[in-house]
Amino acid sequence: MSEPFHLISVAHLEAPAGLVAASIDALRDAIERAPDDAIFQHVTRLPIRHPHARDLPGNDFARWVRTALQAPEAAERLSFAGYDHSRPIAEVRASLLEALERVPARDRRREAAEEATFHFISAHSVRVPLEVEVNTPLDIVDLWPKLDPASVFYHLIEAPARGHADASLVTWLERQGAKGMARAAAEEVAEGRPLERLRRELGTRWRRSQIGRRIAEKAGTPEAERRRDATATIARLAGRLRESASSPPEPEPPTAGMSPETVDGTAMAPKEGPSS
Amino acid sequence: MSDLLEAAAAPPGGWLARYEPVVGSGTLRALEALARRLKGHRIVMVNTTKTGGGVAEILHRVVVILNELGVPTTWEVMGGDDRFFGVTKRMHNAFHGHVEPLTEEDKEIYRERTRIEAERLELDGDLIFIHDPQPAGLIEHRREPGQHWMWRCHIDLSRRDEAYWEFLRPLVAQYDTAIFSHIGFVPPLDLPTFLVPPSIDPFAEKNREMGDAEVDAVLDKLGLEGGSWMTQISRFDRIKDPLGVIEAYRLVRKRRSSAKLLLAGGGASDDPEGAEVLAEVREKSKGLSGVTILELPPGSDLEINALQRASTVVLQKSLREGFALTVSEALWKRRAVVASAVGGIPLQVLHEQTGLLVHSIEGTAFQTIRLLDNPDLRRELGAEGREHVRDNFLHTREVRDYIAAFVAMV
Known about the structure:
The complex is a heterodimer.
Chain A: E1 5-21, H1 24-33, H2 36-44, H3 46-49, H4 60-67, H5 72-81, H6 89-101, H7 105-108, E2 118-134, H8 137-143, H9 149-162, H10 169-175, H11 179-190, H12 195-209, H13 211-219, H14 223-246, H15 260-264
Helix pairs in contact in A: 1-6, 2-6, 4-5, 5-6, 10-11, 11-12
Chain B: H1 2-7, H2 15-23, H3 25-36, E1 43-47, H4 54-68, E2 73-77, H5 82-95, H6 104-120, E3 127-131, H7 138-142, E4 148-153, H8 162-172, E5 177-180, E6 193-195, H9 212-222, E7 228-233, H10 242-255, E8 259-265, H11 272-284, E9 291-295, H12 301-310, E10 313-316, H13 325-332, E11 336-340, H14 345-348, E12 356-358, H15 361-373, H16 375-392, H17 395-409
Helix pairs in contact in B: 2-3, 3-17, 4-17, 5-6, 9-12, 10-15, 13-16
């Protein structure tokens, strides 16, 4: 049942895809012919291109149609077609093409100015094994705040989108019997949020899902030990409050200096696969 | 070589360690893992100057960071005489769209210097990374079996003079890979091409954190007072449109009388055209109150840092641009930016998200007034702008892209 999950990061190398578009019809034609890496770049990759944004902008096609062609209705359809970034690229492409089929004739006549032509870019993925493996779903909860953004993106969004089933975190969690964690991950990805918000909100859901289990575990420990843990937890929390009160207003970078202990004061014991 | 690395001497703990609180430990661990994929390889960087200019500035840091990551990297500087640099300067201008004659003698000067330098330079790595057109010809003389050569073009070739490009293209065609900063800069080339935007160093004098007292001290020294400054810091060059900035200020001033304009830049004293533009700027701003024009000498990084931080709105109202990293520098300081949608600026300024893009003098005035009136909007754009730079325009990202490009090659 238990199988290790190998953590991988990824570097995305951008390259000209050799396709351009200046109208809806040309865009449709180019999307049909574009390599998967280009659909990936302009739609799927959005959450990691803007990981700290408050909200994700529409995908590149939608934004271009809105600004360069001044066709808001078509832009809305394209935005919607690109939603849920972890969908397989073939599905995304089909949705985009379908949205473009339904663009009214008046918008098809619009042409972008020469300097506003849409240039397709491909994102080639260079995968980087982090030489870290996790053995249980709780290991992931433990590591979650420290993982680099590209790794979070790869395992939650890119792997399913590119059909790398072995590297899909949701698939692995399901196989480990952590169906609740898997469901939470799939739901958060489908929300279409910037990556760091996705990471934060998913981490919170996962940790909350463990509270009951941790209380049950603690119930079996001696009273003196529980008191000691509680005191240490409060001390850490007070320390963090002091730190945040004295630090400048800039938010902490997402992966620096955080650990599960400092988030909720309780170390995660990587023992068993939860099902929340 | 050794003096180059001394110049870039790392602080205690190393340059990379300083980035940890900025980009997070996870990002650095992933960068280290990526660098391990280049184990056994050795990079040689080649350009034509060790000081001055954005490329040297980037190399001083990037070379050190690569070495700290365990990728042995050296930096060679191709030399030349006045004749050679005269040709390459004309080449540079021609690639930016200025019509420049290219003679057979020019070509021979380029070839001859390339031959001389090819014998002198230590190109003993297996990954040879050539920056810009000046040293591009080295590949003809020094390519050895097992080496991978990458040409990194930092300039915009979209308005290139075809005569110069026809001279350079057969040399570039011998490379294994080319890298450009922006898709709009890429000429037709039959070799794998990647897009790697340039980046800034958050710890450089121009970008490091400064407290209010330090900023005030610099302003005092410059004889400036606080206030609602709209500021453009760029060399006095027509393509930066300083006259357009004055026009926009005139419109702003009619509606917001407390606004002040600061135009600061270098390049006037040693550049005849710069001096001419500066004179035009002074003439156009005559009788217009609230305008300050500062000619900054080279190396005024601390002053630039303070001026950007003291500005309410930072402008970059260029008519054409390369990448315009001044925008990232302002965004890193959480400034509200109004900038033209040209060159690499739209990659940095995401309209209404990290700043405001404009296409006209009136647009510049309108968006500046909007920002002067709305501190919340300035704060929001500034905060988001800083995050955007953190994610996309710091040296760690540029290093990651270069390593990934080499990994893709080998």
